[in-house]
Amino acid sequence: MAPMELIMSFKKLLIRKIEEVKPDRVFIDAIEAMLLAIDSPYKLKTLVDDLFGVLRGYDITSIVTVGTTFHVESVVEYGADSVTRLGRVVSGNNLQRSVYVAKLRGSGTLNEIRVLNISDNGISILDQSPYMSIV
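Predicted structure:
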């Protein structure tokens, strides 16, 4: 199947499933594999806009993950209403998970990277910066 046909097929499947299931949330993990074969930046942006347009057309929350391995994340972020970046930061001898809200269309954001703590009690975001050494 050609890349454009694959994406159009995915879009039709997405619409059919949203109308059939009527979910509150849609989670797509990871979208970059479908976008790799698109050779034109214009076509890529158009397809991403079209896909996000479908998601915006319904009263749902959509979460789309994208990795950085294939370098298409900037195009996906361009089309998204919200971008939250998860990462890892080396601080002294520690490796800490981090979270950063890079984009939240229509809202102000703090330009601060925070520690993302994952434990047996769940997930929490700490006030501390991941760049501060833990003593």
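Summary: The mean pLDDT is 83.
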